[in-house]
Amino acid sequence: MSKAAELAALIGSQTALSNRNLIINGAMQVHQRGGTTTMNDGQSYSLDRFQGFASAGGTYTITQDSDTPSGEGFTNSLKVAVTSADSSLASGDYYVIDQRIEGNVLAQAAFGTSGAKAVTLSFFVRSSVTGSHGGSLSNSAANRSYPYTYTVSSANTWEYKTITIPGDTAGTWLTTTGIGARLYWGLGAGSTASGPAGAWAAAEYRTAASTVAPISTGSATWYITGVQLEVGEQATPFEHRSFADEMIRCQRYYQEVASGSTYFAGNGLGTTNIIVGIPLATSMRATPSIKQNGYTFHRSGNVNSSGANPSVSNFKYDIGRNAVGVRISGWASNNTDEVAYNVTPATEVLAFEAEF
Amino acid sequence: MNGMNITSAQYMAHPITNENDGIEATIDGQAYYIPLAVGNRHYDEIMRQVAAGTLTIADAD
Question: Which domains does chain A have, with CATH numbers?
């Protein structure tokens, strides 16, 4: 895109010149969970804010990759690699990558009202499978969806795609902290999980019908980066945000607070419990879950480590606040209500999750 | 497709009030402490599976 065209696109986009991307981590920079996510018969988050779904027949992996389109300023992409093909998709099968957009973020598009505005999706994609690929935008209630298609013309070559989706004046689209919309990229789906492209439907189609299915090809690969969804009918250049900016946005949904040798002060409760105040990087979307870990306790004045395998047994978190009070139980007795213990997660990172 | 593979779930009780205030569950092989909060995806999925009759939450110890 020439500079003149970029300027024209920005002026004509009918939306803000900054903070216009409704997608978080569109440049695939943030990967707090790290490593490889293997998808088979389930759903799992991988790179921050991006989730994989897979039926039982095939298997694919999701990783953060350094292969990116040249000259666009990206350093990372999300890579899908098929490790076991599903060559006979059942009608209800589907394999997708998605991002769920919070309702209060999508609210500016006014979906579900007479004033609903078009949104435009743009991204860079590279796949070993050429042809017409698909995806979909759907609502929280899973009764409105807009399947779309895009064409991969050359195998293993980065290509830029844009899709404009007309605003949906029907259905219920949440404007709360719930799911505003689900944005899918299809890797393969059966007949009941896919629908006609280019029209709103009163159903949840996760991709467009009659599209190629990378999951059906052994060793197929599919990469994506530079994902942007913005209000308006014009795709504008990708809004590059700093790593720190993207990280704090991701931490509204998932944050890893600490690993071993990070200590938090605690307060004894009785003889077997300790309450620990843990600061958060930012307030979370909803009351989070806590991964259960072993914890090590140290009393004030010595290094009396717990020999048990204590676990989180309750916690207090108020939405919009930046700290969590966690009660950890299972420690052998000590002085009742003694103060000034130090507690550290012993075996894994201490993580809070408030994803959709 | 299985959304989440929940292999165990047990209520946790507050040590003072003795009222249930969370669920300890193993999901996809990972142990979680889950708040009793609508909107938390783990809690919502546990309740969905309980309603479907495919999961039972054990009483607190």
Answer: 3-241 (2.60.120.260), 254-353 (no CATH)
